[in-house]
């Protein structure tokens, strides 16, 4: 027999764990780099750029376009890594709370 109260308790538990996981995402930081490390970008688990480091040798007018490309590449790499980490965090936080529902991925809720 289906126990509605038990199910509601599980839903509340999932909500609490999801909230905690979302709060943890701000503390996750990942780095992406391009140009053999000449440009480094750090993004948090909420996909916000938190720091950018550019090698001083790149700071001249003639290399402006190359620098822009390197920054974009580094930020995109860091954002992809942050997305992976965020999905791992959500999966870890909700693991074992609800039964495995085929086709339903809590990690995609990030």
UniProtKB/TrEMBL annotation:
Keywords: Coiled coil, Cytoplasm, DNA-binding. Its main location: cytoplasm. The keyword Ribonucleoprotein does not apply. It holds the Pfam family YbaB_DNA_bd. InterPro entries: YbaB-like_sf (IPR036894), YbaB/EbfC (IPR004401). Residues 4-31 form a coiled coil. Belongs to the YbaB/EbfC family. This is Nucleoid-associated protein RT717_18200. The lineage of its organism: Bacteria, Pseudomonadati, Bacteroidota, Cytophagia, Cytophagales.
